[in-house]
Amino acid sequence: MTQEEQIELQQLLQFLKTLADQTRLRILGLLAAEKRSVEELAVLLNLQPSTVSWHLARLKDIGLVEMKADGNTHVYRMNGKGLGRINKLLANPERAALIGDVEMDAWERKVLNDFLEDGKLKEIPAYRRKREIILRWLIEQFAFGRTYTEKEVNEILTRYHPDYATLRREFIAGKYMAREKGIYWRLEQPADAGKPANSAGTKTGTIARTDNA
User: How many other C-beta atoms lie within 10 A of the C-beta of residue 61?
Assistant: First the structure.
C-alpha cells in the first residue's frame, strides 16, 4: 500500500468512526434540510447546546458541515464537498474491503487482550465469535505436517488453560484438527478433515467435540 493510499484509508476510517453516532446522524439529517444554529439544533434534539457544539466540531473536522457567522450567531449547514469526498473514498471496493480487514484485526486484538494474560487463557469465551478468535490463536501452537498423540495435545493445551478437554473438542468440532485412533493433526481446510497429513501435506480448520474427549 502506498503512502497516499494509507492516508486515504485513515481518512475513511475517521469518517466512518465519526458517523457511527446516532446524534451526529440526526444532526446531519436536520442540516440536510436547512442551515441551523446550535440553539435550534439543541431544541430540536433536546440536548444541551454544549453537547451539540461538540458533535458539530467532530463533523466539521471531517468536512461534513461548515459554519458561517450570521451576525452574532454561528450557523451550520451541510457541506456537499465533504459528502463527495466520502463517496469518492468509498467508491474503491478494494479500499472498502481493507477497512473491513482493519476493523476485524482491531476486534481480534481486543478479544485476545481481554482473554489472555501472561500468554495464558484466563477463560474460554462463551460467545462463539470470541471463542473462534481464541481457537485460531491457540491452533498456532501446533505445527503443520506432523501428528500428535492425545497426550501431547493435552500437554500443549494445558500450558494455556487447564480445561484441555474442552479445547481439544473444539479443535475437532471446528476442524482445526482431525483425529484418527488417538492421533491428531492440524488441518488447513474443513475439506481436508479426512486423514492424517503425510510429510508432503498438512491441514487446518475451526471448532467442536469428539467421542472420548
Answer: 11
pLDDT digits (tens, 9 = 90+) for 135-150: 998 998 898 889 999 9
User: Measuring CA to CA, which residue among 112, 29, 40 is closest to residue 70?
Assistant: 40
Radius of gyration of the chain (CA): 26
pTM here?
A: 0.45
Confidence check: pLDDT of 64 > 70: yes
Q: What is the CATH code of the structural domain delimited by 115-192?
A: 1.10.10
One-letter-per-residue 3-state SS of 41-59: HHHHHCCCHHHHHHHHHHH
Helix orientation angle between 80-90 and 93-115, rounded to the nearest 10 degrees: 80
**Residue 182 pLDDT exceeds 80:** yes
Sheet of 36-37, strands arranged across: 36-37, 73-78, 65-70
Neighbours of 56 (CB within 10 A): 20
Residues 81-99 have pLDDT tens digits of 777 666 665 555 555 454 4
Domain 3-85 has CATH 1.10.10.10: yes
3-85 and 115-192: identical CATH topology = yes
